[in-house]
Amino acid sequence: MAKGEIVLGCLAPHPPHVVYAENPEQNEAFSEGGWETLRWGYNRLARKLKTIDYDAMVIFTPHWQTYIGTHFLGLPEFKSKSVDPIFPNIFRFNYDISVDVDLAEKMCEVAGDSGIITKMMRNPDFRIDYGTITSCHMLNPDWDKPLVTISSNRNAHYYSPEVMNEQAGALGEACAKAIEESGKKVVLISSHSLSHRHFVTESPLPEDMSREHIYNHSQYVWDMKLVDLMREGKMKEVIDIIPEFTEQTIAETEAGGLTWMMAAMGYPEYPAEIYGYQSVIGTGNLIAAWDPVEVTREIVL
Ligand SMILES: [Fe+2]
Question: What is the pTM of this model?
Answer without folding.
Answer: 0.98
